[in-house]
């Protein structure tokens, strides 16, 4: 990843400042269908867009597994995937929006999860996005 550049399409990046803690590489706000809404300073726009698409897919897989393991009302609360070099955490953040965070391996998982949930509940109304309609306007 290269140095992030100022981005006029990243007006909501300030919302992610609470997640700038040791062990957090970057955070991305995204729509449930995988579009980047905003990203933190730790990631460039193109990588944030790739992350948003992948995080949306991971969330969809979690929903499918939840239904398989408990039925249609078994909602996903949070996705957590651990890798050799860190974790990916995804949680709901308002209507139609998600919050994804990438970490290093030595992160305080409880602190990150707490900050993510705090942020999601505090500003969900600002970052919620309505579902896209089928056709173009």
Task: Report on the architecture of this protein.
The chain has helices spanning 45-70, 109-127; strands at residues 24-31, 36-39, 78-83, 86-92, 97-103. It has a five-stranded antiparallel β-sheet, sandwiched between helices. The protein contains two helices and five strands, in the order ββαβββα. The N and C termini lie far apart (35 Å). It has 137 residues and is an alpha+beta fold. Strand 1 and strand 2 form a beta hairpin. Mean pLDDT is 85; it is low at 1-5.
What sort of overall outline do the alpha carbons produce when their principal axes are compared?
globular
Which structural class fits the helix and strand makeup? Answer: alpha+beta
Q: N- to C-terminal separation?
A: 35 Å
Largest sheet: 5 strands, antiparallel
Work out the helicity level.
25-40%
Q: Return residue spans where pLDDT drops below 50 for at least 5 consecutive residues.
A: 1-5
Radius of gyration: 15 Å
What do the pLDDT scores average to? 85
Number of strands: 5
Q: Beta fraction of the residues?
A: 15-25%
Strand order of the largest sheet: 2-1-5-4-3
Number of helices in the DSSP assignment: 2
User: What is the H/E order?
Assistant: EEHEEEH
Task: Give a topology summary.
Blueprint: E1 24-31, E2 36-39, H1 45-70, E3 78-83, E4 86-92, E5 97-103, H2 109-127
Give a short overview.
By secondary structure, the chain is of the alpha+beta class.
Looking at this protein, list some descriptive labels:
single chain; 137 residues; alpha+beta; five-stranded antiparallel beta sheet; 2 helices; disordered N terminus
């Amino acid at each position: 990843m290269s140095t992030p550049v100022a981005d006029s399409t990243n007006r909501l990046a300030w919302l992610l400042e609470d997640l700038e803690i040791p062990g957090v590489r970057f955070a991305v706000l995204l729509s449930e269908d995988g579009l980047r809404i905003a990203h933190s300073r730790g990631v460039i726009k193109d990588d944030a867009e790739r992350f948003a698409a992948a995080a949306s897919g991971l969330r969809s897989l979690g929903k499918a597994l939840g239904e398989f393991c408990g039925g249609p009302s078994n909602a996903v609360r949070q996705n957590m995937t651990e890798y050799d070099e860190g974790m990916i955490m995804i949680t709901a953040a308002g209507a139609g929006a998600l919050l994804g965070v990438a970490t290093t391996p030595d992160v305080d998982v409880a602190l990150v999860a707490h900050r993510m949930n705090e942020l999601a509940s505090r500003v969900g109304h600002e970052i919620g996005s309505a579902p896209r309609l089928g056709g173009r306007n």
